[in-house]
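Hello Y.,

Per our agreement to keep a running log of every chain we model this quarter, I'm adding this entry. I've kept the format consistent with earlier entries: sequence first, then predicted structure.
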Amino acid sequence: MKREVLFATEVDLCAAFLDWLKRHEDWTAYAETEGWDILLAHIDGTQIGIQAKLKFNMKVLEQAVESGLGYQATGPDYRAVLVPDGQGSMEICNALGLTLIRPRRHWDKGYEFNPGLDDRCWERWHFSNPTKRHPLPRHVPDVAAGSSAPSQLTKWKIGALEICAVLELRGHVTREDFRRAGVDHRRWVETWLQPADGIPGAWVWKDGKNPGFQNQHQVVYPKVLDEVRARLVI
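Predicted structure for the entry above:
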């Protein structure tokens, strides 16, 4: 008998997992962060890195294992693979120090994922013992987990959003704005900006050259805009 296809795409699989995660208020999901499809962070700092695939295969194992399972490296405390059907793969994951997360569909079309994230399930998780945990972005990414080409909310991208906010609010940026945002001004000046008329040391957008970073993050950008507005001297 042909198995039922639960999810059409990895995005759908991750979306179902994130919907289920909403009942776990102590966990925050960072989509497409630090190379993980989903990086979970608990309020106590514990991290779980999750790689999702529609089929259990070597690719998802390679992505989850990375270099040495995180021993003496930066990484999450626990590593997991999220697949709809992982029959016969539990032993492989255990041997590699990975947790296999699988969905179970309810009669109401909702999903439950096992193992759970409560304390009673920690014997089913394998501690990676990283030297350092992943640094988390200042804002929770507003991107779809599991995308084939995600627009990641990196530290650089948040800095780029700050520059866009300054340009929107004040009309021009200076080298000090770039320094504060932690962004190298040279690429911007070469590609997207031109000198501002009558304002020495300032730049404005070139006509038609706004790269549209703010449009890629329509949830996070208003938050960045508010932050910049609160501190900006116009």
